[in-house]
Amino acid sequence: MEAIVLCGLQGAGKTTLYRERWQATHVLISMDEVHARAREAALLEECLAEGRPFVVDNTNPTAADRRRYIVPAREAGFRVV
């Protein structure tokens, strides 16, 4: 089980990287796609519960922003990249 947490400025290529490397194997978790933090959290919980690999595609500029994905993923036994 793998969780990938991308970070970077808008337009830096995070979504392109996801499409080129992980689209076929990992669920995309992105505020640009779900448009609401509650929906994003529900998708994250679903991936964790089902053991589905995922990529978080948000700017995630601070450690606190990334921590909201990293901590639960590690607790669920995911390898976090």
Topology:
Blueprint: E1 2-6, H1 14-21, E2 27-29, H2 31-34, H3 37-50, E3 54-57, H4 63-75, E4 79-80
Parallel strand pairs: 1-3, 1-4, 2-3
Overall description:
This protein has helices at 14-21, 31-34, 37-50, 63-75; strands at 2-6, 27-29, 54-57, 79-80. By secondary structure, the protein is α/β, with parallel strands linked by helices. The chain has a single domain, classed as P-loop containing nucleotide triphosphate hydrolases (Rossmann fold, 3-Layer(aba) Sandwich). It has a 4-stranded parallel β-sheet with strand order 2-3-1-4, with helices on both faces. It starts with a strand and ends with a strand.
